[in-house]
Design brief:
Elements: H1 9-17, H2 30-43, H3 51-65, H4 69-82, H5 101-113, H6 119-131, H7 146-153, H8 156-161, E1 178-179, E2 190-197, E3 200-201, E4 204-205, E5 208-214, E6 220-225, H9 230-243, E7 250-253, H10 262-270, E8 274-277, H11 287-301, H12 311-328, E9 335-339, E10 345-349, H13 357-363, H14 377-385, H15 389-414
Parallel strand pairs: 1-8, 2-7, 7-8
Antiparallel strand pairs: 2-5, 3-4, 5-6, 9-10
Helix pairs in contact: 1-3, 6-7, 12-15
Length: 415
């Protein structure tokens, strides 16, 4: 039996009761189903049928189409209105696209320049690029949500534009100085300091980075030395302390012997700087410096061995390029203390409190009083506005590439 032979309501009833032989099938294609449904509705003049007959037609169409009753009723209404059924072309565009390939490429270039910072920092840099430095290419990205930054990082456009860097470790040691956690009372000048070793190769030691971070402003100075013996370390350490634009009041290290010794203690005493060191079983005492080891030092220099003779070139790069970038152009998160109902103090990192270390310094109450003699905010503002965040990051990338190429060529010549 073919579908064309079903011409009466009784033949449909016989079909539904299983008394009619079946020798037809409808294609699973939407337009074939619509054609068959339209043909049956027209043949039986569906609108003129009584209620019982309509029910029989519907039962038949449900069986041959596989559609739900609700969907079939919508098709019957459409047939009654238009006289036939025509499948509509599906033109669902989904959500309107807000960020285009050029925005994703811009995000990838920003990540590459800033060594893939966290989403909050990326959002802040995009805002600053548009609002502070007037870069109109960031008009859309300035309003991006932090979560969507990570979505865009998964896109093919981003992946085709990017390649990544690496991560970090820490150190331990001896005695001298007072074992306590410094209390800064919101004043800049309380620095945390740590050493990062740049790898061994064939039994030869690499150079060392000294990483000093102010606890209140996160103002950071990185210096590089050939060795951490007294003859190399002391001059660089003295220069490092003088590089901060504000007075240093406290020097806090872990228990590494490079700092916990009489020579360093004498230097700090001469400069009237209090010397404290980490307490046992208090792993957070020097966490700020160790966190910056990962976020800045390792991201910039990686883990690979850098021979000690290149310490001067690396230190020059630090002073001229890296330190200005991280202090004037790299936003940081700052904690807010929130007291719970039980009286427990919890640190919360809010996006609105994100700013560069220099902006944080300016936000300190009566900040001018903490500046070193001869230093003014006008001088520091000139440094901050000399180039945009992205220009500073690109300069860092170029100069670092030159530095690494120079080191690599030098190592090849020695080999």
């Amino acid at each position: 039996m073919k579908i064309d032979n079903l011409t009466t309501i009784s033949s449909l009833v016989d079909f539904l009761d299983g008394n009619q032989p079946v020798a037809f099938s409808i294609s699973s294609k939407k337009q074939d189903k619509y054609k068959a449904i339209s043909k049956i509705l027209s043949r039986f003049n569906y609108p003129q049928l009584n209620r019982k007959e309509k029910g029989i037609v519907i039962q038949f169409l449900l069986k041959i189409s596989g559609y739900s009753k609700q969907q079939l009723e919508r098709l019957i209404r459409a047939h009654k209105k238009n006289g036939n059924l025509v499948p509509k072309q599906k033109t669902v565009n989904g959500f309107e696209r807000k960020y285009f390939s050029k925005d994703i490429t811009l995000l990838a270039d920003l990540d590459k320049a800033h060594d893939t910072p966290n989403g909050l920092m990326v959002k802040k840099i995009c805002e600053r690029a548009f609002n502070v430095y007037g870069d109109i290419s960031y008009e859309r990205l300035q309003n991006i949500s932090v979560a969507h930054i990570y979505n865009l990082r998964k896109s093919k456009t981003y992946q085709n534009t990017r390649r990544n860097y690496e991560k970090t470790n820490s150190k331990k040691g001896v005695q001298i100085g007072e074992r306590k956690k410094p209390i800064n009372n919101g004043k800049p000048g309380y620095i945390r300091i740590d050493t990062v070793h740049q790898g061994d190769l064939d039994g030869k030691k690499g150079l060392y980075h000294i990483n000093a971070v102010d606890e209140v402003t996160q103002y950071q100075v990185i210096a590089t030395v050939e060795k951490i013996s007294e003859i190399y370390l002391l001059p660089v350490l003295e220069e490092l302390l003088a590089s901060f634009p504000f007075k240093i009041l406290n020097f806090h290290s872990d228990n590494g012997s490079e700092y916990v010794n009489k020579t360093v203690a004498r230097l700090l005493q001469k400069l009237l700087i209090e010397f404290t060191k980490s307490r046992p079983r208090k792993s957070n005492d020097n966490a700020l410096a160790e966190g910056k080891n990962a976020a800045v030092v390792r991201k910039t220099f990686g883990y690979s061995h850098i021979p000690q003779p290149y310490a001067k070139e690396v230190n020059k790069f630090n002073k001229e390029v890296l330190n200005p970038y991280i202090n004037f152009h790299r936003p940081c998160l700052f904690p807010t203390d929130v007291v719970s109902e039980k009286g427990k103090v919890k640190k919360v990192y809010k996006y609105e409190n994100m700013m560069t270390p220099y902006d944080k310094l300016k936000s300190v109450e009566n900040a001018q009083q903490y500046l070193n003699e001869g230093i003014t905010f006008k001088m520091l503002d000139d440094i901050a506005m000399a180039m945009s965040d992205n220009d500073a990051a690109l300069l860092l990338q170029r100069e670092r590439a030159k530095l690494f190429n120079h080191i690599h060529e030098g190592c090849l010549n020695i080999a």
